[in-house]
Design brief:
A middle domain of Talin 1, two-stranded antiparallel sheet, two-stranded antiparallel ribbon, 4 strands, globular
Amino acid sequence: MDILLLLVGLALILGGANYLTDGASALAQRLRMPEFLIGLTIVAIGTSMPEMVVSVLSSINGQSDMAIGNVVGSNIFNVFMVLGLCSIIHPIAFTKENIRFDIPFCVLVSALFVVMACDTLIGWGSTDTISRFDGAIMLLLYIGLMTWTIRTAKRPEKVEDGAKPMAWWLTIVMIVGGLCGLVFGGELFLDSATSIARKLGISESVIAITLVAGGTSLPELAASVVSFLKGKVGMALGNVVGSNIANILLILGVSSTINPLTMGGITLFDLLVTLLTAVLLYVTSFTFRRRELDRAEGVIFLLLYAGYIYLLVR
């Protein structure tokens, strides 16, 4: 039964990613917005809903380390695994806007996360806590970012290839239906995979580090890979960058506003690896004199993720 549910969850994820990509692309065409912007906003927020649910419920139940650890693990997975796999399929080209603003802002947000979570290291307090005040700052920054990004986005001059836009009702149905497929399929896949792992005798720590963080990031993985295979590279990149920003500013902002979040078992090393993912993504835009994340760098990302997991579970 668990294997059957695993396959059903996988089918929902793939189907949801396919419909979400087509619906989001149609919305970008309708609103004359860059696909990267749609990926950064609608797709990123939608695919971050599993992380939102896990972190908010963890905050309500007083499980601060789970709320923070979910975001840390998901952000590392998004860059090293999702973009690593996508770039192996085909190199990911960066635009000037990505290099000048989008990715640097992701680096700054990750650095802010480290600063806000390490009160004892900086001398701001006796415990490492993300306070309600910190959460309010995060939420305000996220609202400001979204507002500025939408207002300054460069609109395409004409509809691509002169194609007739998809009907509004169908666009909305595809986006909502795709997101539902991703979220429910991801939850079904995660639950069944966890059950199978336990029956095979795999430890709880390994399950938490790999399946929980990776499971809540399945929507980002599926949406990005499907977008990439359909030639929507900007949407795939926007989804990962937007999801990582939303995970910190929106999800931790909401969670810490509900209840202050203490670090618990989350270490400075974990936070620094989160920051490292954003920094390395920025560095790849300047390597080999090409503004892209190429296949070799994608392989390095996958190896770094494997190394990180090894260090945690050894």
